[in-house]
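Quick log. Single chain, no ligands specified.
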Amino acid sequence: MSTPELGLPMAVAAPDLPARVRIYEVGARDGLQNEKATVPTEVKAEFIRRLADSGLTTIEATSFVHPKWVPQLADAEQLFPLVSDLGRSSGVHLPVLVPNERGLDRALALGARHVALFASATESFAKANLNRTVDESLAMFEPVVSRAKADKVHVRSYISMCFGDPWEGPVPIHQVVRVCRALMDMGCDELSLGDTIGVATPGHVQNLLAELNEEGVPTSVLGVHFHDTYGQALANTLAALQHGVTTVDASAGGLGGCPYAKSATGNLATEDLVWMLQGLGIDTGVDLGRLTATSVWMAGQLGRPSPSRTVKALSHQE
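-> predicted structure:
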C-alpha cells in the first residue's frame, strides 16, 4: 500500500502560510531544454497533456529561442499547436519563453497568450545567455513587453542569478532589486526570482523578498524558482511561503538544468513540492498519484530514473 493510500502525508497546517499555492510547472520547457537526446515532439505533447491531467493549470510549454541556441526546443512551431487546445478546453495556461521581438512574433502567430522573458541579475550571465549587458538586455525587452501588453498578453519575466553567480560569486541584493524594479516598471505582470545554481538559503530568500517590498515590488507579483543543487530548494520555498509568496516554479520529476550555467542541477521536483504543501494543508489542485505516474512515464522516455525523492518513494524506484 502506498503512503497516500495510508493517508500520508498527514496535513498539519503551520501558521501564516497561504491557503493555496499556484505551481508554475516548467518541466516541459526548462526541464527538457538541457537533455542530450532529442525528445520527440509527440512525446513532449503527451507529457504536457499528462501534466494537465494531473491538475496543473500553468504549464510552460516551450521556447521560441533560436534553435541554434536551444536545439532541444527547435520544434516549438510544431509542438504548440498540438497542445494549444488545452487553453481553450481546460483553462490551462501555456506560457512560452520568448527572447526578443522575433520570438514574440513566432509565439503570437500561434496564438500564445502568456509569454515569459529571461533576464539576468548579473553581467556575466547576461553576456553568456543573451550576449548583452544587463542594461542592453532590458532595452531589448522593452518593445517585447510593450507589444505583448498592447495585445493583452500576460508577461512574466524570469530573473536569473538572484542569489549567486558561477562567475561573480555572491550577488548583491540591490543589484537584483534594480533589475526587478526595471522589469516591473516596463509592464511585466509577474517576476520569477531564480536561484539558477541553487546556492540560496532561507535567510537570503527572505531578505531579498523584504528588500523588494521596500522598493515597491509587491509580493503578489513574485514567484520563486529554486534549484536543488545543495538540497535547499524546499527550505527556500518554505521561507518564501512564510513571506506570502503564492507562486512556486517546479519541474515534474526534478528535470532540468541550465545550458549556460553548468553548475545548475535539477529544478525543485514538483512532486516533492506537492508532498510538502499537502503536509502543510495547502491546496494545489494537483493529484500527486497522477503526477508521479507522469514523471515515471517521462523517466522511461528519457531512459533514466527520476531524481525526485517523492517519485522514487511512491513508485518504489531505487
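The radius of gyration is 18 Å.
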